[in-house]
Each structure stands twice: as C-alpha cells, then as structure tokens.
Specification:
This protein has 114 residues and is mostly beta strands. The chain has strands spanning 3-7, 10-13, 18-25, 34-39, 46-51, 58-60, 68-73, 78-83, 92-98, 103-104, 108-113. It has no helices and eleven strands.
C-alpha cells in the first residue's frame, strides 16, 4: 500500500520546537519532490517547505523566516520538518505530499500556545 504517515505533532509553547516526520511506504521518497503543507482553520492549505528530488535543493515559504528545516533520511524513507521558534500563528494541521506520486499523508496537528 502506498502511503505517507505523519507524526510528531503536538502542543508546544511559543518559542518551542517540534520535529515532524513523514514516513513513506510503497514509494521511495528519493524518487519524488517532497513538500510539507499546512492548513489552519478557515484558511487555505499552503506550502511550508519543499525538498528537491536529489535532496540538495530546498524552498521555504516567506513566513518560515529561517525557523524550519526540511530534510530526509533515505535509509528510513522518511522526510522531516524541524520547526524551531514556533509561534501561535504556526498552529495548523501539517501534511506531507509526495509530488511525483500525488500522494498525501493524513496530517498531524501542531498547536502553539501563547
């Protein structure tokens, strides 16, 4: 079965850190551009970070402002999003997406309390 499973979300105070994981099965993450999205209540889903197929190029949304890092562990077939200096406005459901396969994960909730 082809799937992406996110984990690592939770409740954290402002300024805290979380590391989100996106474990893939049935597909190889190094064969795909991998993207983290997020969606806050009442808002549209937006791109947070993107990792190129060869793993050497990244893109971050403007609001990241150097706080997040996307990276992968090919041996574990897992993509990560390290999030530091979290803010209340980062509260959202976070989803990973395998662009080359058109596969979404189920999402993991991040809540940042002020």
């Amino acid at each position: 079965q082809v799937q992406l499973v996110e984990s690592g979300g939770g409740v954290v105070q402002t300024g805290g850190s979380l590391r989100l994981s996106c474990a893939a099965s049935g597909l190889t993450i190094s064969d795909s551009r991998m993207i983290w999205f997020r969606q806050a209540p009442g808002k549209e889903r937006e791109v947070v970070a993107r990792l190129s197929i060869d793993g050497t190029s990244t893109y971050y949304a403007n609001f990241v402002e150097g706080r997040f890092t996307i990276f992968r562990d090919s041996a574990k077939n897992t993509v990560y999003l390290q999030m530091n200096s979290l803010r209340p406005e980062d509260t959202a459901a976070y989803y990973c997406y395998a662009n080359s396969h058109g596969i979404w994960g189920q999402g993991t909730q991040v809540t940042v309390s002020s």
